[in-house]
Specification:
mainly beta; Porin; twelve-stranded antiparallel barrel; globular
């Protein structure tokens, strides 16, 4: 999977790369995750995306086609592997972005079970604010600062499954 990820990134057309470290903080300590996402244009309205994430005791990687009917909307499906006995993982993503508004939904399923992330933000100048729902992290608001190629944000969350508060602290970079 990593080899395909690197080949797609190296030889496809226009590219977008996103690298982030997401940290979940609670009374158990800090759980960091490293995330790498790339999207490479293949043809008009079509690209291929690749995603990978690594944290203590878990990792996943998947890739798939992305259809962009216009400049604001992107729809994709992906398949890949995860570090579980069943190995396979699938995902569906929807992204809508216009001016300072951005919203996306990711739904995944595989050997470790279903997972979701809903992230809606508005950018006003160099500030970003919004709401987030992320399985195993929780639901809440997010506040941050965004530059041209980086973003630093935090989100106090409540995880209804674990019935506990969590804090997300995230730094992301788009070269």
């Amino acid at each position: 999977m990593l080899i395909v990820f690197l080949v797609v990134s190296a030889f496809a057309g226009d590219k977008f790369v996103f690298i982030a470290t997401e940290n979940r903080i609670n009374t158990d300590g800090v759980t960091p995750s490293l995330i790498v996402f790339t999207d490479s244009k293949l043809a008009d309205h079509w690209s291929v995306s690749a995603f990978s994430a690594v944290s203590a005791g878990y990792s996943l990687a998947y890739l798939g086609p992305v259809w962009k009917p216009n400049d604001q909307l992107a729809l994709s499906v992906s398949a890949g592997i995860e570090s579980s006995p069943s190995l396979w993982r699938v995902a569906a993503k929807v992204l809508y972005a216009k001016k300072g508004f951005k919203g996306f939904v990711i739904l995944e399923d595989g050997g470790t079970g279903p997972w979701y992330r809903v992230d809606i933000t508005e950018r006003v100048g160099c500030f970003k604010f919004g709401v987030i729902a992320k399985r195993y992290n929780g639901l809440g608001v997010r506040l941050g600062f965004a530059g041209q190629h980086f973003e630093l944000w935090t989100a106090p969350l409540y995880d209804p499954e674990a019935k506990r508060p969590n804090l997300m602290a995230v730094f992301s970079w788009t070269p």
